[in-house]
Design a protein that fits this description.
Blueprint (H helix, E strand, L loop, with lengths): L1 E6 L3 H12 L4 E5 L6 H6 L1 H19 L15 H25 L3 E4 L1 E6 L2 E5 L5 E11 L3 E3 L12 E2 L1 H4 L8 E5 L3 H12 L3 E6 L10 H13 L3 E4 L2 E7 L4 E6 L5 E6 L1 E4 L3 E3 L32 E3 L10 H15 L13 E3 L4 E6 L2 H7 L3 E7 L4 H6 L5 E7 L5 E8 L2 H13 L4 H5 L10 H10 L8
Helix pairs in contact: 1-8, 3-4, 3-6
């Protein structure tokens, strides 16, 4: 009998297992695929960043190196090598998780996990054989799968999801992206930089619509420079695969049908919780109408010894959110009193410029009727950004109108994925905009833009604009 069984080895699952082992629990983890790490390490966060970095290097070599005084000739993309490097990066990370399981004496069971009862899980292996294991506590960490629309037939050849977009055999001539969210913008960027024409069809009136609207507007401006076309407020009505051509039809909101022709369609309209075959109901676990596992504030299901974390429960589908939840549950089982502030889990879009955000958006503050002030600072005015030719974007700080407490920080620009951590620290300690404004930031750095935006929020005191 294990103290804890974790079903799923993504960032939520494997981190939960490690923390449980650290706390002295006899722990097992179940993974249906041959490799550990889940979507994030195998077909998500890690491989997409590898391709984003490779494509950004190529784009700079083609477009900015000359200005830097670096002249190249005969520049071309070796997509096969780019994909091979990506796979090597994935392997290194996946092997790292395998090592961590051994180091922490966690038993790894490869196979498909499904409930027999609230303490028993059946593991069905690839060859059809199975075994059952028992645990005092069980964590469901089965993650999510790409979502689609009922009338779209994903053939994985021309009509693809993010999984297939990470292993293309050719650069699309015209990639049509259905969905203007994070995944679509990142993978669209990869192929846009490599020379593909990219058209984005989005139902909402903005790209990355869940983030502060200023970010979407700024990112759209930058992506237009890459040659992106945007069809906002367009509802896709049909996707037709004609062999080497794919046709997307969309209602433009005026009763007119727009036809877009390309050679590949990337369907990136979000992800759905993955509970297929889990047999949650056999253990008495309730799912909601969206297929999510229902949990309370302690991430416990309606069955007291069964918990759920990550993409399979409510909240943002983010690897680092799942990790925090994994630690939270392991520590809760051990009798500790952990805490997660969901407002302060940052969101990042790894395009270039990068987009990063934490706390309330301006739209949310308006909706809540909260009085706030805004401070902005553009990277165009940053010495460091000028030096690196990364002048697109800005930092936007939202602070309480009376107390000056920072309520939200939204950044689009160079290295904002890393810079946002300063804002998270500040907000965890309930810093005011003036607190950050009075801290010394090294010069020249990108982070000075955060200080300047805080100065701007504090009686409009920005120094360099």
């Amino acid at each position: 009998m294990y103290d804890l069984i974790v079903i799923g080895s993504g960032p939520g699952g494997y981190v939960a297992a490690i923390r449980a082992a650290q706390l002295g629990m006899k722990t097992a983890i179940i993974e249906k695929y041959p490799t550990l790490g889940g979507t994030c390490l195998n077909v998500g966060c890690i491989p997409s960043k590898a391709l984003l970095d490779s494509s950004e290097h190529y784009h700079n070599a083609a477009h900015t190196f000359k200005t830097h005084g670096i002249n190249l000739s005969g520049l071309k993309v070796d997509l096969k090598q780019m994909i091979a490097r990506k796979e090597d990066v994935v392997k290194q990370n996946v092997d790292g998780i395998q090592f961590l399981m051994k180091k922490n004496k966690i038993d790894v069971h490869h196979g498909f996990g499904s409930f027999v009862d609230k303490n028993t899980v059946k593991v069905t292996k690839e060859d059809g054989s199975s075994e059952t294991i028992q645990g005092k506590n069980i964590i469901i960490a089965t993650g999510s799968k790409p979502a689609s629309l009922p009338f779209i037939k994903i053939d994985k050849e021309r009509v693809i999801t993010s999984t297939e977009a990470l292993k293309m055999k050719e650069i699309p001539k015209h990639l049509i992206v259905i969905g203007g969210g994070v995944i679509g913008m990142e993978l669209g960027s990869v192929y846009g930089r490599l020379g593909a024409k990219v058209s984005v069809v989005e139902f909402m009136d903005a790209i990355i619509p869940s983030m502060d609207r200023t970010m979407g507007k700024e990112l759209q401006k930058s992506l237009k420079k890459l040659g992106f076309d945007f069809y906002l407020k367009h509802k896709v009505t049909a996707v037709e695969n004609k062999g080497k051509e794919v046709i997307v039809r969309a209602d433009n909101g005026k009763g007119e049908i727009v036809e877009i022709k390309g050679d590949y369609v990337l369907v990136s309209i979000g992800r759905r919780p993955y509970t297929d075959g889990l047999n949650a109901e056999t253990a008495g676990v309730k799912l909601n109408e969206r297929g999510q596992v229902e949990v309370d504030d302690h991430l416990r299901t309606n069955v007291p010894n069964i918990y759920a974390i990550g993409d399979v429960v409510k909240g943002a589908m983010l690897a680092h959110k799942a990790e925090e939840e994994g630690v939270f549950v392991a520590e809760s089982i051990a009798g500790q009193k952990p805490h997660i502030n969901y407002l302060l889990i940052p969101g990042v879009v790894y395009t270039w410029p990068e987009v990063a955000s934490v706390g309330y958006t301006e739209e949310q503050l308006k909706e809540k009727g909260m009085k706030y002030k805004v401070g902005k600072f553009p990277f165009m005015a940053s010495g460091r950004a000028r030096a690196s030719m990364d002048t697109d974007g800005l930092v936007k700080v939202l602070a309480d109108a009376e107390t000056d407490e920072i309520l939200g920080v939204h950044m689009i620009g160079p290295r904002t994925a890393d810079m946002i951590a300063e804002a998270v620290v500040a907000m965890e300690y309930r810093a005011s905009a003036e607190d950050i404004a009075r801290m010394s930031h090294a010069h020249p750095t990108y982070t000075e833009a955060f200080k300047e935006a805080c100065l701007a929020a504090t009686d409009n005191r920005a120094l360099h604009i």
